[in-house]
Amino acid sequence: MIGTTVRVRALRWGFRALFGLPSAAKRALAGPPVRADGQVLDLDLQLLGRVTTALASRDGGVVDQAALAEQRRQADLAAEVTAEPGLDDVLTRDVEVPGDAGPLAARLYVPPSAPESSGLLVYFHGGGFVLGSLASTDPLCRLLAAQSGVRILSVDYRLAPEAPYPAALEDAIAAYRGARDGAAALGARPELVAVGGDSAGANLALVVAHQQRGECAPAFVLALYPVADAGRRGGSRETFGTGFGLTAALLAELERLYLPEGIPDDDRRGAILRAEGFTGMPPVYLSTAGFDPLRDEGEELAERLRSDGVPVVARRFPGLVHGYASFSAVSAAARDATLDAASALRAALALVEHRRVTT
User: Fold this and answer.
1) For 307-319, b where at least 16 C-beta lie within 10 A, e where not — what string?
2) Which of 199, 236, 287, 328 is catalytic?
């Protein structure tokens, strides 16, 4: 434990020193600007990509089932190393929420500015339905809570391949319902319970909102660079499929582990973009990153939501990569994009509360 703590501190110091260098020094280390599709890659993220490539194994990043435990541990370690400082005033409490097959671990984040009873975001972490945990998403949840003033409930849903589709989705639905039913114990009101997530977690949040329309609908959906069309080929999945963190090969492997063969053709919940209709869904904030393999499907989903009358705020951050919300401590542009999401969450729930009071 002591050795791990020392290593984390040393790595954290190294990252902060590296990314605190003058721009000219970072450019010399990162190489010439990367341009694609009319966009320029953020300098800090370009440098981060060079560092992580140098540290990565040579297998292309494809998940080896025998090494999943170590890969999950490394994801938790990476989150701890790159965590943004100054968020210790966000209070946390480990709780349990209902899951489809039994209770799930969860963590409640309460910002110092939160009133005694307020809104709540039920949050599902990213990781391709295979990786990710409460620990890996802890820095992001702290930042969202601190900047939005909204309570965040992070849910540790079951992962593939141990629990393939639809386990994660069924857990997400059960956790949302449980949070809504038990909102008072979490310091929230049922009508102010929203859902959100990043990447795979954004997919879960969107599908939960699609499945829970009507009186049980979430107040809002926060979807950061969502997986929207599993199994897709071409487009941004090809253009940005190598060299920008998330690769097309890794994405295909993660989707294979989550969505094994045998799923009925009419079960489209694993690819929300293919759903038949979205009428009646709550307002959605949906962000994409310019250098993300998932960019096109996320933007197509935003258009489909709009065409069905769903209020949508869609943002593309052209210089960023997939997973940018986890890089707020090393990239000012990634931090600004994450704060944009926090502002949208705060404004959306404030609007729901205003309408409730005035009607």
Assistant:
1) eeebebbbebbbb
2) 199
Residues 6+ apart with CB under 8 A from 256: none
Please confirm, yes or no, whether 292 is among the known catalytic residues: yes
Q: Among 105-109, 268-272, 321-325, 330-334, which is the least confidently predicted range? A: 268-272
Candidates 44, 133, 156, 322; catalytic one: 322
Domains of the chain: residue spans and CATH: 55-358 (3.40.50.1820)
CA dist 44 and 330 (Å) reads: 7
- CA distances to 304, 306, 323 from 283, rounded to whole Å, are 13, 10, 22
Q: Is 199 a catalytic residue?
A: yes
354 among known catalytic residues: no
Task: Quote the percentage of the chain above a pLDDT of 70.
Answer: 95
Residue among 198, 292, 296, 331 flagged as catalytic: 292
What does pTM read for this prediction? 0.95
Other Cβ atoms less than 10 A from the Cβ of 112: the count is 10
